[in-house]
Amino acid sequence: MRFEHRDGRERDAGIDMTPMMDIVFIMLIFFVLTASFTQTQTLDVERPSTASHDRSAPEALVVSVDRSNIIWFDGRQVGKEEVAGLVRGAAAGRPVSVVVNADRLVPSGLLIEVIDQIRLGGVANVAVATNAGHS
Predict the structure, then answer these.
(1) Per DSSP, which regions of the chain are E strands?
(2) Structure confidence by residue, pLDDT tens digits, 63-122
(3) β-strands 61-65, 71-73: how paired?
(4) Angle, vertex CA 130, rays to CA 86 and CA 117, nearest 5
(5) Are 128 and 50 in contact (CB under 8 A)?
(6) Contacts for 84 with CB less than 8 Å, ≥ 6 apart
(7) Is 85 within 8 Å of 121 (Cβ atoms)?
(8) pLDDT band at 56 (very low <50, low <70, confident <90, very high)
(9) CATH code of the domain containing 82
């Protein structure tokens, strides 16, 4: 009977991890791609009412937007482009805040444009007036 002689080297009895790593990376790529394609759902939010309310300081300027999307400042009708200059002039270098009193039917885009104009006028403290309570 003939025996084979090995030349002193033993074979490693390890587990090959390459196929498992391939599967892990494929799963990782799959989850990254599917997570980036999911869309965030939005909620319908009825504005402007709140359970809590802060009282504005007496020195606050008021900019109003009625349901006809007309902007009012200091009792007179103004254009959207005029708001920044009027706020800058009314603030006259002193720290003031501005309260935006907008009707609930005013489009959000117009409200954001008015707030942007107020900030361009040099006032960073802008608040949107809301009704107290849940309506």
Answers:
(1) 49-50, 61-65, 71-73, 76-78, 98-102, 126-128, 131-132
(2) 888 888 888 888 888 888 888 888 888 887 777 888 888 888 888 898 899 999 989 888
(3) antiparallel
(4) 25
(5) no
(6) 117, 118, 120, 121
(7) yes
(8) very low
(9) 3.30.420
Of 101, 105, 49, 48, give the one whose Cα is nearest residue 74: 101
CB 76 within 8 A of CB 132: no
Count of other CB atoms within 10 angstroms of residue 113: 16
Range of the domain at 74: 61-131
Tally the domains of the chain.
1
| Phi, psi (deg, nearest 5) at residue 120 | -65, -25
Within a 10 A sphere around the Cβ of 87, how many other Cβ atoms?
22
pLDDT tens-place string over residues 13-39: 778 889 999 999 999 999 888 776 655
- Evaluate whether residue 42 is within a structural domain: no
Candidates 76, 75, 84; CA nearest to 122 is 84
In a domain, 17, yes or no: no
Q: Answer whether residue 116 is part of any domain.
A: yes
What average pLDDT does range 113-132 have in this prediction?
85
